[in-house]
Design a protein that fits this description.
The protein has one domain (10-106, 116-125): VSR Endonuclease (Endonuclease, Chain A, 3-Layer(aba) Sandwich). 47% of the residues lie in helices and 17% in strands. It has helices spanning 10-22, 53-56, 69-92, 108-125; strands at residues 27-28, 31-32, 35-36, 39-41, 46-51, 96-101.
């Protein structure tokens, strides 16, 4: 597990590249409400959380490991509870949250589609 990345994952890099191409300003790994988030969009007063399907329990793609199932089910439950606590803290700080799942960033084209939506939101906010 020490080799598992928590920062600069492939889905995060794809999304950041697509946002840069659209000209959307963002900051990576800033703290908001005491929580370090993947991307901060200051112009929108919004944060983007990029969730991995395995680590955050995607309803469509999570497959529980067959080995050590008690450990993994407890670990996943703890991750979900932490996500809820962090979401509350971010919202209480007055920020909006956009959660993007790893499976929605499989290709650069997928990332471009999501970046376009964020770009349109930033234009409406101006």
């Amino acid at each position: 597990m020490s080799r598992i990345r928590s920062r600069n994952t492939r889905p995060e890099r794809r999304l950041r590249e697509a946002l840069r191409k659209k000209g959307v300003r963002y900051r990576s790994y800033q703290r908001v409400g005491g929580v370090t988030v993947d991307l901060v969009l200051p112009d929108l007063r919004a944060v983007v959380l990029v969730h991995g399907c395995f680590w955050h329990g995607c309803r469509r793609h999570y497959v529980p490991p067959s080995d050590n199932s008690n450990f993994w089910s407890r670990k996943l439950q703890e991750n979900k509870e932490r996500d809820e606590r962090q979401t509350l803290r971010i919202r209480r700080a007055g920020w909006r949250i956009l959660t993007v799942w790893e499976h929605s960033l499989e290709t650069p084209k997928d990332a471009d589609r999501i970046a376009s939506r964020i770009f349109l939101s930033s234009k409406r906010a101006q």
